[in-house]
Design goal:
This protein is an alpha+beta fold and 209 residues long. The chain contains two helices and twelve strands.
């Protein structure tokens, strides 16, 4: 969530758990009250953009999958000039789709400034908010949480996993109703992990509530 200092007009990012609280501006050290009304407006705009990217990602994924599936099929049965021409046209469309997806990836980085590359079987450093790192192997996920602030934190977040087109293929929710993470404390969350059949995971980002 992005906040702005009224004194020096500096913009900085903080977790949404600080809505309704005062924090110090990293630039001028003045107290800044985080306005919940402003946050809701930003969230609505972000959600609208995300919905657009998700729909575009699903359409592009379907188009590319269909084209790439038909290309080897036509290579096997193509015996005349007409089918060869169709094959050439299909390959050109596939190349255009790949270029479009490359542009789409740049748009993803603009929409999700905290977007990170995903890797299986590797501890991935996050260091954003109170999520320190994640580790996904097979059907298990481990999320390491660390509170570096001066106040207790009650985790409430979703980690979204996206395919190359920006469509969500998996998500992991962490929501503590009673317990909190004390200042300086590190906690580990482990649970079962599963993904939907919409392509391989390429990126992930953390959404705080």
């Amino acid at each position: 969530m992005e906040a702005s200092c009224n004194s020096c007009h500096n913009s900085f990012v903080i977790p949404e758990v600080y809505i309704g609280k005062s924090v110090k501006c990293p630039n001028c050290k003045q107290e800044v009250l985080i306005d919940s009304t402003t946050c809701e407006s930003q969230t609505l705009s972000s959600n609208t953009n995300k919905a657009y990217v998700f729909c575009m990602g699903l359409t592009i994924s379907f188009l590319v999958t269909s084209i790439l599936w038909f290309i080897p099929y036509y290579k096997v049965i193509s015996q005349n000039g007409t089918i060869k021409n169709q094959l050439k046209a299909a390959e050109e469309q596939a190349e255009k789709a790949k270029v479009f997806m490359a542009v789409q990836n740049k748009n993803l980085n603009n929409l999700y400034p905290t977007l990170k590359k995903f890797f299986w079987n590797r501890e991935i450093a996050v260091r954003e908010g109170y999520v320190k790192s994640i580790y996904v192997a097979g059907q298990r996920i481990r999320i390491t949480l660390h509170n570096s602030s001066y106040e207790p934190v009650k985790p409430d977040l979703t980690i979204w996993f996206l395919n190359a087109a920006g469509f969500p293929v998996a998500n992991e929710n962490v929501q503590w109703l009673m317990n909190t993470i004390k200042p300086g404390e590190t906690r580990v969350e482990e649970s079962t992990f599963s993904k939907r059949d919409f392509g391989e995971i390429e990126y992930f980002y953390v959404e705080y509530r």
